[in-house]
Design goal:
Blueprint: H1 2-9, H2 13-19, H3 36-86, E1 95-96, E2 102-103, H4 104-111, E3 142-145, E4 174-178, E5 189-190, E6 215-219, E7 224-227, H5 229-232
Parallel strand pairs: 3-5
Antiparallel strand pairs: 1-2, 3-4, 4-6, 6-7
Helix pairs in contact: 3-4
């Protein structure tokens, strides 16, 4: 290397140029922008992809809300079980009519579940839960089945909810569900039978418009499953005071 360097230093400048590699000339690049047609094609492709993916994304979001709702109902069922254990096997009244007035949800919230969010479905955020409102005068996200909670006898002095041991078929008897009532006075109950001629039963039909056409339903045995309103209100799940009670 030293010998080569010494030889180069002794060469004439004209001779040295023959030993130096010439630099490549860099020509400036010209970038061509998108044409209007190409831009429209790209926009059309993006719009098509969005239209394909949006239903899947919305369905995934709805499924996530349904899972959260199901978890809420599971926690509510735990509250029911704790109440039944403390009150000699009785379900709470759907609503107290004597002081202190309150709903089944107030009882579970005050003594067992200290989180208002458990009583709220993420698909209907406008149905908020405010504990201990007089007579439960507000629409709620979830409703207790009226007959289990005392039915029409809640105004009778000393009346209680049904006893768990008296339920003949717990796996088929509705305990709680998502209700679609618009009443501001009886927004805490649920009926799983369609009586179109009687307005009282419109206070708590299952709401199957929250989760892609189904409503989360809790049964007495603790099972939670999605059903349409027609399914859960059909004869298959309907038990009157005489035919779902043990004799």
């Amino acid at each position: 290397m030293k010998l080569r360097r010494s030889i180069l230093t002794n060469l004439h400048p004209a001779q040295m140029q023959r030993h130096v590699k010439p630099r490549l000339a860099i020509s400036p690049q010209v970038f061509r922008g998108f044409t209007l047609i190409e831009l429209l094609v790209v926009i059309a492709i993006i719009s098509l992809l969005v239209s394909i993916l949006m239903p899947s994304l919305n369905k995934a979001k709805d499924l996530a809300r349904q899972v959260t709702c199901s978890a809420n109902i599971k926690n509510i069922n735990l509250g029911f079980n704790l109440y039944i254990n403390d009150w000699e096997g009785y379900f709470p009244l759907v609503r107290e009519t004597t002081a202190p007035t309150g709903t089944w949800a107030d009882k579970l919230y005050n003594d067992y579940i200290k989180d208002v969010n458990v009583f709220m479905c993420p698909s209907v955020p406008e149905r908020t839960f405010t504990p201990n409102v007089s007579q439960g005068a507000r629409p709620m996200a979830y409703g207790m089945e009226w007959w289990l909670g005392g039915g029409a006898n809640i105004t009778t002095s000393g009346w209680k909810g049904r006893r768990l041991i008296d339920i003949a078929n717990p796996s088929m008897t509705v305990l709680l569900g998502e209700n679609n009532n618009s009443s501001t006075y009886h927004g805490y109950g649920l009926h799983n039978y369609l009586w179109p001629d009687n307005i009282i039963y419109q206070w708590g039909w299952p709401d199957d418009e929250r989760h892609s056409g189904v409503s989360n339903i809790l049964f007495v045995d603790g099972r939670i499953a999605p059903y349409t309103r027609e399914e859960v209100c059909g004869d298959f799940f309907w038990y009157t005071q005489t035919n779902w009670m043990n004799s």
